[in-house]
Amino acid sequence: MPDRATAFLGAFLLSAAPAFAGDALENLVRQDCGSCHGITLKGGLGRPITVQALADWDAETVAQVVLNGMPGTAMPGWAGVISEVEARAIAEGLKKGTFQ
Amino acid sequence: MKALLAALSLALAILATPVVAEPELRGTGDLGVIIERASGSALIVETTGHSKLARVEGLGDVSHASVVFSRDERFAYVFGRDGGLSKVDLLEQKIVKRIVQAGNAIGGAISDDGTLVAVSNYEPGGVRVFDAATLEMVADIPAAFGDDGALSKTIGLVDLPGRAFAFSLWDAGETWIADFSGGNDPQITRIRDIGANPYDALVTGNGRHYIAGLFGEGGLAHVDLWAAEPKATRILPGYRKADPALPVYKMPHLEGWAEADRVFVLPAIGRHEVLLLDAATFVPAGSIPVHGQPVFAMARPDGRQVWVNFAPPHNDTVQVIDIPSRTIVATLKPGPAVLHMEFAPRGHEVWLSVRDADEVQMWNTRTLRKVATLPALKPSGIFFTARAHRTGL
Question: Within 13 Å of residue B204, how many CA atoms lie on the same side as its CB?
Answer without folding.
Answer: 20
